[in-house]
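Input structure tokens:
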């Protein structure tokens, strides 16, 4: 019986050694290509979504904005929320990708890796809270809502039939009741085309 256990133990140890050598000798470029392919596919999906929204009938006003990189963007009032969501998602995806690179790097200290993981978790938590708030605001009779949480600040853009201080105050109260720790809430009301 002891001989069988010894053979089993040596087999398992040799398996661990072989797998370790394989993992160490596998080039990192292969791992990065897989991640880049996924990111490229995601960018392709976003580009298709933007093209589909451009094909839809334009309703309402058209806003022409100049982006940070100097490109001029023409956005109708109905596409404003979709465009803002895509920009926010792109920014966060790029930030998370750089944080993932920090976590995967062998040249970074454990404290820096931990800070990067904490920031990634904070981004994920902010996204989840934003989705909850958007659903909550829409369920209270508003046409559309976009919530952006940046630290302790909450920026809310709402498509509403009425644009008044009382509507903005109502939205601030909704956000404050749902998110207890958020004290700095800014609301922007966009007119609804309906």
């Amino acid at each position: 019986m002891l001989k069988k256990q010894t053979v089993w133990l040596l087999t398992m140890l040799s398996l661990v050694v072989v797998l370790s050598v394989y993992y160490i000798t596998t080039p990192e470029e292969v791992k990065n290509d897989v991640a880049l392919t996924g990111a490229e596919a995601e960018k392709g999906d976003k580009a298709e979504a933007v093209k589909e929204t451009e094909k839809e009938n334009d309703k309402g006003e058209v806003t022409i904005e100049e982006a940070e990189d100097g490109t001029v963007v023409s956005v109708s009032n109905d596409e404003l929320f979709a465009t803002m969501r895509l920009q926010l998602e792109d920014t966060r995806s790029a930030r998370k990708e750089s944080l993932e690179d920090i976590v995967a790097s062998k040249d970074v200290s454990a404290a820096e890796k931990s800070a990067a993981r904490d920031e990634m978790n904070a981004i994920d938590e902010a996204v989840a809270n934003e989705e909850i708030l958007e659903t909550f605001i829409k369920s209270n009779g508003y046409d559309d809502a976009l919530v952006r949480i940046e630290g302790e600040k909450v920026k809310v853009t709402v498509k509403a039939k009425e644009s008044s201080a009382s509507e903005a105050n109502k939205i601030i109260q909704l956000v404050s009741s749902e998110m207890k720790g958020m004290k700095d809430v800014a609301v922007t009301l966009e007119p609804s085309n309906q």
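The chain has one domain: 30-191. The longest helix spans residues 110-139.
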